[in-house]
Structures are given as C-alpha cells and as structure tokens.
Design brief:
The chain has 158 residues and is mainly beta. The protein contains no helices and nine strands. Helices cover 0% and strands 26% of the residues.
C-alpha cells in the first residue's frame, strides 16, 4: 500500500508492506479481493486457514524499514462466517509495542486499556481481552480483538 503516512518528517513517502509472518501459511480464496476497496485496504484469507500477517512501514524509494515514533491504525469489519468454525477474524496487538491503537473502532484510553467502540445494533460484535502472553505465544501481554458475529456485505464500511 503506497504513501500511507501523511505529513512524514522531511516529506518522506512511506509505504505499508503486508507479508505473511514466518511460520504461518497464507491461502487466499479470491485474488481479486486483495488490494484497495474504496478507501480501505482489503486482505482476503481463505476460510479455515489460520494466518498471521506482519505489517511493516518502509521508505517508498528505498524499501528500507522505517520506524515511526507514533502512528494510529484502524481495523474495520472484524467479523466471521455464519459457521464461525470456518472463519473467525481477530486482531492481536502486543501491549509493549503499542503507544496508541485503534482496533475495531476502539482506542487506548489514558490508563492504557483498549476500549471498543462499535457501531450499529451489534455492540457485542467483538470481544477484547488482555492476554498474559504475546501475540506469538511467548512472554508478554497482548490485546486480542475477536469477532463474535457474522458479517455481511451490507455492513462493510464505506
């Protein structure tokens, strides 16, 4: 995804590279569903295939990694299939790597806990748990945002 950081220091252009994390598998159901969907990035994953993705900011000109002192990321449309065993979406963020997070429409409050803000009638469409292990299962703490309800095309953000 190109030029994702606006107002970077020195006018630097920064891209976001999404890749499959080491030790994870990635199978897609529909190649045409990857890429941009209106103003959103969309990543298509085949049902019943657990996938861990890695997100990295890089310089647009050199592809060298860029460390941002602070950024905000918003994740929309965390949902699942009618049969949740086929697909249950979740986002995991390690606490020690977070300064400010927006996930499922939520944010870290001043006390450092994640608050979910959902829209529409499905206030319980996600759960947010503070887990005493890192996202990769090692030492640390992480927030796990998980879907609890099926989603439909009509409830996708626009």
């Amino acid at each position: 995804y190109h030029d994702v950081v606006k107002n970077a220091p020195g006018g630097q252009q920064i891209d976001l590279v999404v890749s499959v994390a080491s030790g994870s598998d990635y199978l897609l159901a529909e190649a045409s569903s990857n890429g941009n969907w209106e103003q959103f990035a969309q990543i298509n994953v085949r049902n019943n295939v657990p996938t861990t993705l890695q997100f990295q900011f890089v310089d647009s000109d050199t592809d060298e990694p860029v460390e941002l002192t602070r950024f905000v990321i918003t994740v929309f449309d965390i949902d699942e299939q009618i049969e949740s065993s086929l697909q249950n979406e979740q986002v995991c963020v390690d606490v020690d790597e977070v300064y400010d997070v927006i996930a499922a429409g939520g944010s870290l409050n001043d006390m450092g806990s994640l608050e979910a803000i959902t829209t529409g009638a499905n206030d319980d469409s996600v759960t947010i748990d503070l887990v005493e292990e890192s996202c990769r299962g090692g030492e640390g703490r992480s927030y796990r945002v998980r879907s609890t309800r099926p989603g439909w095309l009509c409830d996708n953000p626009t």
